[in-house]
Amino acid sequence: MREEIIVSGRMNPNIDPTLHIWHWQIPLYLFMGGLAAGILFFAAYFVIRGKEEEYPTAVRKAPLIVPILLILGLFALFLDLKHKLFFWRLYTVIRLQSPMSWGAWTLMIITPIAFIWAALNIREVFPKWNWKYQWLKDLDGFFRKYKVVLAWVTIFYAVILGVYTGILFSAFNARPLWNTSILGPLFLVSGMSTGAAAIILMSKNHLERKVIAQVDLLLIGVELFLIVHMFMGFLASTQVQIDAANLFLGGPYTAPFWMLVVGIGLVLPAALEGLELLKFKIPYYIPPILVLFGGIMLRFILAYAGQMSRWLY
Amino acid sequence: MRYAMAIDTKKCVGCSDCVVACQTENNVPIGYCRDWVVEVTDGTYPQLEIEIRSERCNHCENAPCVRCCPTGASHYADGGIVLVTHNKCIGCGACISSCPYDARYSHPDGYVDKCTFCIHRVEKGLSPACVATCPTKCMYFGDLDDPKSPVSVVLKNRKYKTLIPEAGTKPQLYFLI
What we know:
Number of helices of chain B: 6
Number of helices of chain A: 11
Largest interface: A-B, 48 and 48 residues
Oligomer: heterodimer
CATH class of chain B: Alpha Beta
Distance between the termini of chain A: 19 Å
Largest sheet of chain B: 4 strands, mixed
Number of domains of chain B: 1
Strand content of chain A: under 5%
Structural class of chain B: alpha+beta
Strand order of the largest sheet of chain B: 8-1-10-9
Structural class of chain A: mainly alpha
CATH superfamily of chain A: Formate dehydrogenase/DMSO reductase domain
Number of domains of chain A: 1
Helix content of chain A: 55-70%
Mean pLDDT of chain A: 95
Strand content of chain B: 25-35%
């Protein structure tokens, strides 16, 4: 049998034997970012459609947690930096070819937007909230007046944020598992699905929960479709991408991926939501918790497996 | 000007002198290396062939690390040498993930570090430390735009290959075969 044995004298920490430069911080941040994008997307969408009264949780309550998600996510990102005190260098330059630069600037725009949404709805939690100063009241009035414009801007940046969390990975041709443009839409749809799940968990309105659960069911369907296509693309591609796909098709990530992401995170909640539609009694909070779990696992597994996939030469 | 390096896989014995020379010259932290030796055994027993390569950053012409750097710390210096400006680097690791050769590492001080083609020596007209120290003289360094440079001459007369050219990086490390 013809064999090729490669022996390398390199043993750099976190690089060899397999790359492990990104730890838990990056997938956690990608989850928070996707969730924030999903919640903002639905809030903005229902405002644009003029359905604020029918979807009070999606429009008023859920956006309150978005600034917290973004700040926790950004903090995780900061923890990941190894030359921390120089983080401000991100904001001295715009580099169009760098997805990370896009992400940094997108967050710079969407974080204040998220704070505006939270501020507009702060009375949901503190009914007696008073802005105290006249200029703050004027500002509040201004954003209320132009809420639909704000919603359009929000929906635009929410989609960019959702897609970017996937593009961050897919831009690296050195990691064949990540190097598929399907990751952009996949992470966007997954983020929207987790956003819908968070809204269901927070909602006390039965009708709202039902509609959002149907939307979530649709999103899960799209996600499964994208995952199947991702593997079809890999298997029809070059040897390095076939090897990358095999990490999930018999390789070390087979069981975690198909059980935790596809089984518990997608198929099971979809089945439960389907049964709910058929009038079976299922506690409303179970499917969304599973969806959120699947969203986290998808990002963790893709982040870790991607670093294992490589070119051999 | 286009700096490049050619390494003769027929002459290299894999002694790792280049690795030690680099670590000494560039004060590379213990446990890390900017260049390394790879031994590839290929064939069907007993017809085996061994190729020994001294590898390092390929100073690619289409460098993914420069493209993905969010701050511009990774950049092309004179002659196409890919460098990292330490006080611009935030240590995000994007360039490390983007390198198909895994030539970069995170320095214990936080910034990302890699082979510089010993630019501090090259600027003075010297050759990189690994080239200068090689006991079998199997490495050639120079300017590809200068037809008389050692690297241009050897590439004219010998067959060569680059590593994973299909990754689209246009590597500038040539291996004579």
